[in-house]
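#struct-pred
JK: can someone run the complex with S-adenosylmethionine? inputs below
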Amino acid sequence: MLPRGKRGTSGRKSKEVVYAAVRHNRRRIFVSDGTKAQQYTGTRRVIVHLHPDELRHRMVEAQLRQRGIQDERVLAAMARVPRDEFVGEPYRTQAYDDNPLPIGEGQTISQPYIVALMLQLLALAPEHRVLEVGTGSGYQAVLLAELARQVYTIERHAALAHCAQETLRRLGYTNVTVEIGDGSAGLSSYAPFDRIIVAAAAPEIPRALFDQLQEGGRLIVPVGPPDAQRLQLVMKDQGSPVLAEQIGCRFVPLVGEQGYRE
Ligand code: SAM
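RT: done, structure tokens with the ligand placed:
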């Protein structure tokens, strides 16, 4: 093992040198950007990818905790759930980067920070029943399944819903029900819900979703056109909506009866 603090060929001094050196047979390696270890042997340069567990830990610390995510249950769930399992092979090495990634059908898996922020704002409890609109890859559904009792998730693209279902099965999650359809109208057969989370931007707060919210419940939904969206947290207080929070954001459109037209 290299002595702690020994400089790699980059001249950098950091504990990543030690971490990478341990993993790769005591060679001199430095970490260039937090996701890849670059090894120099003579004139040859080899890229060595760090283990997903390590990348996930870095993601939680650097992208979430340092930006103000404080809910320890959310942080622990994000540290457990393997985001790399929810993206296609070409994107696996980028799975813990600080941005959304393509998942097919012109859709994206959301940036980890925005997912964590929404989960924190929802204030989930273990007994909650949750509706998610916009299953996408199934990543956020699995995080919800870690934090709540039962998750119902609806996706308008059948191919994405099937793929998410397969990932859920492979990872062993049994408390998530995946439906195919227009989630802008909610999922009345399973209503009411303690919490509702919408992963696509609506023109306004969909009435059907608010109606399917339990008294005292919380609904989080991005509202507005692509260049002027606000993430809105709505609480149901004696049957009326109370707007609790508004944050700038950027989501794909919610397409449907109570969303945008295709
Ligand atoms: N939560 C997802 C994940 O963890 O991968 C990311 C969701 S992506 C940002 C938004 C998703 O909402 C897309 O998969 C899109 O097809 C879906 N969507 C858009 N309008 C919808 C609707 N009316 N009903 C259901 N899903 C919808």
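RT: quick notes.
The chain is about 25% helix and 30% strand.
Residues 103, 107-110, 133-134, 136-137, 139-140, 154-157, 160, 182-184, 199-200, 251-252, 254-256, 259 surround S-adenosylmethionine (CB under 6 Å).
JK: thanks, will look after standup
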